[in-house]
Amino acid sequence: MEEYRKNGGANAPIGTLLDGIFADAKNLLVHELKLGKLEFRLEVQKLQAAAVILGTGAVLLAIGLALIALMAAQLIATHTQIPLWSCYGIVGGSLIFIGALVIFSRAHMKD
Length: 111
What we know:
Elements: H1 2-6, H2 14-79, H3 84-110
Helix pairs in contact: 2-3
């Protein structure tokens, strides 16, 4: 087959030409699959990095919200005659109410 490639495939038998075409097509397919696999790995790595950043942000946000809720309960108890346990109930109930509103408004938006 090499001798036919040197002269551009002139006078090569059809079988030899078809063998060359199929070999080239197989080679191209193998390389395309390798490229697709590498692109997929790259996208997975990008997703992993984004998930780590998002998770870190969510944990920090939750800690901050917990501290703000504790502060709000202590603030209410300091400036009113309401018992501390009731202040925690007020703040906790308020957070539950706001969370329920957010969930139900989002559920309503999907319909």
